[in-house]
Amino acid sequence: MASNSKSETFLQRYGYDLLLASIAALYVLTVPYTKVEESFNVQAMHDILYHRTNLDNYDHLEFPGVVPRTFLGALLVSIVAAPFVLTASLLHLPKFYALVIVRMALGCITLYTLRFFRRQIRNKFGHQVEAFFVIFTAIQFHFLFYCTRPLPNILALGLVNLAYGYWFEGRVYAALNSLIFATTVFRCDMLLLLCSIGMQLLLTKQISVWGALKHCTGMALSCIGLTILVDSVMWKRLLWPEFEVFWFNSVLNKSSEWGTNAFHWYFTSALPRSLLAAYPLSLFGLFLDRRVRSFTFPVLAFILLYSKLPHKELRFIISSVPIFNVSASIASNRIYNNRKKMIWNLLFLTLLALLLVSLAGTITSFMASYWNYPSGYALKELHGIDFHHETNEEWVHIDTFSAMNGISRFCESDLPWRYSKEEQISLEEFQQRNFTFLINEHPVINGFKCLFTEDGFSRVRLKSGFPPISLVKEPKVYVHGSLGNQNIVSQNLSGCS
């Protein structure tokens, strides 16, 4: 009896965490590879774990990217992951397992901060609202899929979750300090959220200008000093990374070089895709409970301000999802409690339908994402083929497209494999070089035999019957072998036809 009681207590305390963590872990295990947006932090974690103090071998010195990023997030995740990576190395597991470990570590950090926020939701709005919050988070694809991905936005998300929790708890200066940390170290655009929440707190007289200066100036200076100290060493020059990012994106307005979207894009595309059923329900929640308005309106202001920047991506506003989920949970709780009344019963049936539609949307997004990292799968398949290596080194050239769509240093193997990401090599030049294999986006290259292709997601197609949609895939990555190597020529592989 005591054992059952302990088990029940454990599930009551950690059941929601286990549910969300299990879904996030499923995403990691089934879609383990990373894209170009995650490249800096992924390579930084690899280098911290494997090169340690040998900075000359770090990837960022050879491929610095458009703007510099801080090492503090990668350093924190690497410290958490280090014991598990060491164990994997002692077991002689491939480095690929370290990629899974660092992503799991980041997911644990992010979900732990979400747990703190969720407990404040329970304290303020009750257990049922907390339960609906978990349901919405679980059936939304993007939040749990992204929470393990080493993006600057996700490193900032953990601090934003803490800020939301402190805000709900009434510890407003702690909330502001969390946002200051996120802004100065990880994502300068969190300044918009900081200003929106700060202005709301100021107008409602929860803070004063003097109080904010007294409580927050020290945190701002400490964070700036910390990032300058660490990142100046890592980048080998005096540097405050997020200030350079701010200058590049906001002052020079060069972020538009990566694509632009209409002003309304966040409200008509990003939020509907990320929130799914919670989107209309969150708007309903604003009418039902005035308490949630004071938390939601500053976040809406943050998105409106962000919408003025021409370059837009869903991950830029991923930190707004938890607040919208709170509003949607309050609406769902009200509908559920009144479901036996005539009008509310119709709303309850609508709620159930929306949840089912959200689940279907999440499954579709998950399947599309599974096929969205073709070069990672291509390199894994190449490593698995027995070529009877006769030389000490087998050089694999990875083109820019492949480096952006699934391949990181965690995917590399030991001797005889060697890798090159040298850029701006013409197709004609490849046969004059000593590359054994090529992984790139071109189906035909002189001097090389196309060994096999890897399909990637192309588009969603509507069709009659069930399910009403299907995913269209097409060849995205081609793996070539040198015609000068007889072991490669003799391989009976699928080819590229």
Automatic annotation (TrEMBL):
GO terms for cellular component: endoplasmic reticulum membrane. GO terms for biological process: protein N-linked glycosylation. It is a multi-pass membrane protein. The chain crosses the membrane at residues 71-90, 96-117, 129-145, 179-203, 209-230, 343-371. Pathway: Protein modification; protein glycosylation. Keywords: Endoplasmic reticulum, Glycosyltransferase, Membrane, Transferase, Transmembrane, Transmembrane helix. Its main location: endoplasmic reticulum. Its EC number is 2.4.1.-. It is found in: Endoplasmic reticulum membrane. PANTHER family: DOL-P-MAN:MAN(7)GLCNAC(2)-PP-DOL ALPHA-1,6-MANNOSYLTRANSFERASE, GLYCOSYLTRANSFERASE. Mannosyltransferase that operates in the biosynthetic pathway of dolichol-linked oligosaccharides, the glycan precursors employed in protein asparagine (N)-glycosylation. The assembly of dolichol-linked oligosaccharides begins on the cytosolic side of the endoplasmic reticulum membrane and finishes in its lumen. The sequential addition of sugars to dolichol pyrophosphate produces dolichol-linked oligosaccharides containing fourteen sugars, including two GlcNAcs, nine mannoses and three glucoses. Belongs to the glycosyltransferase 22 family. This is Mannosyltransferase. It comes from Vigna radiata var. radiata. The gene is LOC106774197.
